[in-house]
Structures are given as C-alpha cells and as structure tokens.
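(Protein data)
===
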Amino acid sequence: MYKSPIQTLRLIAIVVMVLVTCSCTSEMKKSRYLARAERYFKAGEYDQAKIEYLKVLQIDSGNAVAYARCGAMWTDEGVPLRGGAFLLKASELAPEVA
C-alpha cells in the first residue's frame, strides 16, 4: 500500500507530538522525587528517603534541602562523618538556612 509523503509527514508529526507531551521534564521528576522523599522522611523510612533524595541530587546538584535531609538522616543513624559532609554542603548552598 502506497502512502503519500504528506501522510508520512503527518504520522511523524503526530508521533513527535505524542512523545514531547508525554515525556517528563527534569523539574517534574525532581518535584515527584522530592515529594516521595519527604513522605518517606516524615514516616521515618530513611533508606527509601535517601534513595529519593539522591535521585533529586542527580537532577539538581544544588538542592540544599536534599543535602540537609541526607545529612540529618545519616547523623540520626549514627554516622556523623557522612552526615556532616552532607550538612556542610547544605550550609554552603544555603547559608541563610543553616
């Protein structure tokens, strides 16, 4: 079955539009990861929260909240050296908060 070039272009345009509108932006991912991380953090599920905060830091390496929360969790778990590194980075990124 023969398709005209215009039909092929229309099909390609539709596929591109669907892919563009369905894909997640990094901001959307970051906000979703932050929401999950906060939920886990407040529930005391630190292992899951750390995973989500580290995902946030992969997207936005300048997120002071993620650094501060990771530092607090590591310190609460009795690993103050690792926690201190995260807290130090958080205070560098947002000195007014620390």
